[in-house]
What we know:
- Helices cover 9% and strands 41% of the residues.
- The chain is mainly beta.
- The strands form five sheets. The chain has a five-stranded mixed sheet with strand order 7-13-12-9-10, covered by helices on one side.
- β12 and β13 form a beta hairpin.
- The longest helix is centred in the N-terminal third of the chain and has 15 residues, at 2-16.
Amino acid sequence: MVGRMRSLALRVALVLSLSLVACGGGESVCDKPRAATPLDRAVAGRISGTVTLAGTPPPMKTLAFGGDPQCAAAHPDPVPAGDALVHDGRVQNAFVWVKEGLGDRTFAVPDRTVTIDQAGCLYAPHVVGVQTCQPLQFVNSDPVLHNVHGTPPHSPAWNFGMPVRGSQRTVRVPRPDVMIEVRCDVHPWMRAYVGVVDHPYFAVTGADGRFTLADLPPGDYVVASWHERFGTREARVTIGPREVKDVSFSYAGSP
Length: 255
């Protein structure tokens, strides 16, 4: 009973604060013109690879939805936390990006909106990537109150309520950050991760663990892989004109 009263109080406070919370804080920076450095695709190369886990994947906890009956009703079967998805040794939800090597190149901001939905009291997708200032939209597909609390290390935080089904809010993150945790303060098991970089050379691995970074100008690069549970790996890669390189990142599981 005490837990439910606290949850109700939090919900009321969030609804009352809807007009007071921040909505991203990157608008002024993101509205400035940005001239893109020309790219000669005739000589561009590509980096492809796989993120793997050697050994036995660690167990995942089962999410407890009991604090909210509507959330629990959406999941009659147990739901794993999803923080260690590995399929035949291939790691899902690894964020791979060019960490160093692009120098002072600049890139146009994509018009395409990246969307994170709140459905069944879960964030989907669990891991996404965007460029700096690219629209990042949050949608509430649930008939319950959620709030979206993002805490970038190098950009303004945001924290806004989404009280009804169909609510939508968009933020733009002005500075690179790998990684930004997004959480719902109403439902503490809800977590998502957003990788923000100032270029288009990033990818999130699917169930096959694969990634591709295409249209890279020739040069020397540091490519990195981030995973919420397995950590970060880096590799140095040199790309010549029209060259294709294969790079793999391997994490260690249980023996």
